Each structure stands twice: as C-alpha cells, then as structure tokens.
Amino acid sequence: VTNLKRVFDVSAPLLNRLLEGKGRSIVRAVDGVNFSIRAGETFSLVGESGCGKSTVARLIVGLYEPSDGSINFEGVEIGSGADRAKHPDIQGRMQMIFQDPYASLNPRWRVGDIVAEPLRFRRLLTNRAEIDKRVGELLAQVGLSPLDARKYPHEFSGGQRQRISIARALAGEPEFLVCDEPTSALDVSVQAQILNLMKDLQRKLGLTYLFISHNLAVVYHVSDKVGVMYLGRLVEWADTKTLFDRPLHPYTRMLLDAIPDLDMTGRARTPVAGEVPSPLNPPPGCSFHPRCPLANDRCKREVPKALPVEGGAVACHAVEENRLPPWKAQAAA
Ligand code: SF4
Ligand code: MG
Questions:
Q1: N or C: which end of the chain has fewer CB within 10 A?
Q2: Which residues have any ligand 1 atom within 6 Å of their CB?
Q3: DSSP states of 273-310
C-alpha cells in the first residue's frame, strides 16, 4: 500500500454524523498511508475510532476506490476499480471478515447456503453433493458441526456466528483475510476462542491477515507487525515486539500507557487524554499536536514525514530532531 488516499468517506459513521447538514464537505478519510504485508504474517492497524482503519481495510478489499495512491498485490496493481476489474482472480484471493456477525449474515438463509455462497459465486463447485460436503468440512474447520448447515443464524451465539462468517470467508479459498474488528462485538472469553481459531487457521492454511483493532492488548497477541493510525495517517509502524518495547510516536506511547500491563514493565495505567479532533477540520501540521506533550512550532506547521527506523518507521518531528525522551521501560532499565 503506497500513499493511499481516500478523500471522501461516506460510510464511516463518525464522519457521516459530522457531515450531516453540512453538504458534501471534503474529508480526507485517509492520507499518505504506506505499509506492506508479507505473505503468512499478521499486520495489525490500531488507533481510536474514526482514525481511518476501516477505510484502509475497505480500500484494500476494493469496497472503496482510492482517490490517489497504489495498492499492490504480489506485484499487480489493484488500486483503481479499473485495475481490479482486470484481475478478478485476485479479488477472489482476498476476503473480508466484519466486526458484527449479526449484521453480516443473512437471517433468512440457512447457514449451509451462507457458507456455500462463495463456492457458488466463484463457481469453485457446482454439484449439490460436492457443495454440501465442502460446507460440512468448512463448518468442522471452524469448530462447528456439519449438521449446523441446516440451521439459521439466529440459532447461534455471537461467537458461533463469527465462526460462520469465517467459514464463509474460507469457502472462497482466500490467501489474504482482512479482518475488521472481528472480535470487538464478543465477550472477552469468546474473543480469545475466535482469536485462537484464527491463529490455527493461519498456521494450517498459510493465511495472511490484515487485522483491524482498537484493542492493543489483542493486537499484541496476534500480530507480527503493528501500524498505528491517527486521523487518517499511519504515524508509526514496527515489528510487534519493537513497537511495544520502545514505542517512538507520542500517540503510540499514549495508547500504550492506557492499556493494562502486558507483563512487560509493571507500568501504571494512564487513561488516554483528550479527544480525536474532527476529521472535517484536522489541525494543521502534525494533526496530533493539540494532544502532544512534545509539540513545538514546527509541529503546528509541518506535517511530519515517515522516517525509517530500526524495525519500522515513524512520522514525528521530535524523533527527527532527537528530542524524544526515553520510553519509561528504557528509563527504568
Ligand atoms: Fe508531537 Fe510534533 Fe511528533 Fe506530532 S510531530 S507527534 S506534535 S512531537
Ligand atoms: Mg471501524
């Protein structure tokens, strides 16, 4: 993903609310987002609600078209709808799993038909008996019974419904799954079961994940790399361990300060201070400056560029100007 931009985002609920009664204002939902995901790894995007994570997910699977920038899948450009149309095979190799299993399953369809839909749509199988057999295998693969194919979504719990969504996604034989807050609607104990299932499937099937979450504790456990978004920009990304051991961006540090101890440093918990400003009217310069304890005059004028650092990249003037205080864990060591 290179220099990804989407200027107007009609689906983000936060933006929608802001835009009500204001006509079609131009909102840069996402701007200058750059990252790459290796086959077989899990790359997570984190940030507070409204930071553009879901927009990036939808751009990648082609639900939205970027106004500028590039999305590249194994060397093939699929950024624009026209590019994507030239490669229908690639579209089939990626699937999306949504946050709300209640809303994403058709209540009038039997589970068997829901799971079979990608098989039929991609014409992977056409024979009824073969489809039934494959649906049974897919349900077993996600920890459900092949007999569940005859039931309707309302007969299942939230966690089971997310298992059905995963089975449906796997039916299309994807290599790359974009998972937008796949466990946020679930109870904590059920979350862990679904995350474990996703890890197992990744190992068995060699899947690659883009994982969207606002929950850093979850991200810590599932990711190989983590990208942190703020007001539509990717402000830092790094290997998971690097990011949690030595966060550089002040926003990343603020998020880490707010989560309960991840058996690393015994640090106390500080709630996230302030609120995300309106994306309609983002602050000039570094859009984090009104909340940043390290902001200076340059921060108020100039958007920081992403600098490569060991294990990742960070967009912050304080890092470039070498005036970033050590992280608490480093200071204590
Ligand atoms: Fe803070 Fe400036 Fe860095 Fe933005 S660029 S995060 S305002 S120090
Ligand atoms: Mg979202």
A1: C
A2: 249-250, 286, 288-289, 292, 294-295, 299, 304, 316-318
A3: PS-PPPTTSPPSSSTTGGG-TT--HHHHHSPPPPEEET
